[in-house]
Description:
Elements: E1 11-14, E2 21-24, H1 34-47, E3 49-52, H2 60-68, E4 88-91, E5 110-117, E6 125-129, H3 130-135, H4 139-147, E7 149-153, H5 177-180, E8 186-190, E9 192-194, E10 201-203, E11 209-212, H6 217-231, E12 237-240, E13 247-251, E14 255-259, E15 269-275, E16 289-292
Parallel strand pairs: 2-3
Antiparallel strand pairs: 1-2, 3-13, 4-15, 5-13, 5-15, 6-12, 6-14, 7-8, 7-11, 8-16, 9-10
Fe (ii) ion binds near residues 94, 98, 100 and 257.
Amino acid sequence: MTQKQTDQSIELTRLSHNVGAKIEGLRLGGDLDPDTVDRIRTELALHKVLIIRGQQHLTDEDQYAFASLLGTPTLAHPTVVSHGRDNLILEGAANAWHTDVSFVDRVPKISVLRAVELPGYGGATEWANTVAAYERLPEPLRDLADALWAVHTNDYDYASAKQPEAPDVTDSSGFSYAEFTRVRFETEHPLVHVHPATGERSLLLGQFVSRISGLRDDESRDLIRLFQARILSPDNTVRWHWEEGDVAIWDNLATQHYGVADFGDQRRKNHRVTLAGPVPTSVSGQRSRIITGDASAYSVIDDSGRLANYPGNLAVA
Ligand SMILES: O=C(O)CCC(=O)C(=O)O
Ligand SMILES: [Fe+2]
């Protein structure tokens, strides 16, 4: 019944110069042949975000089986257990710029998100390329970024959740603050890490950052704002308006993303499978450091190295 894919059938169209491509003519599932899986890996390394159209046939199990061809799935979430064990069920929109689960030491390398229920209007997702943002920095800022470290935590400034009269509000993706923070994680990551698959340097920031190590609070905030503004430059982002059957795959070590909460009180539901990633490494070869929390039950560490056929690596190989 299943039909094997060859990568000849893939039709890829870039969505912008700096980030994103859409792919047609592919049928995702756990039975994709290794050449096609390799092609997906390579295109993901190049474009950072892939939108695969026409996947109406996928069940949660198929999505999980497909994702497993690209790596080792994590549990749905380190702390949120009420929204699925394998596929994370996201209702609403994650409307803050972030890299998924950057508060643990082992940052997931890839997320695979499937549109399950779409609103009649609104509800796009945006992505920003954190490699391109780094590469476009003027040299003095690159040098500064290379030397900085930042603390990421799940107990971040959670949408006014810390008001004493509302200790367990839910955020716009439907997670309760109490559950999200039931185990506290705090990790110190380099502001610039070396991407294990491509060797590219990438800025690692986003919603879960609480401070830059060694600086005063005001200095920390100013620098976070400066680098985050570079990442979020419209030239460096892409916005995707979901259609039924769309699956998005993003390189979580080279992007941030944002779910646009502009669909009023309509329902919007996505299912996500996340793949284990490495403990990030700084440009001088130092690895991220745990301050609080053990994420070993959430995810293995996937330290797999360079992509053999990544075009950007040809000069290095
Ligand atoms: O709501 C969205 O579009 C983004 C969801 C998200 O952040 C995620 O699936 O990791
Ligand atoms: Fe996310």
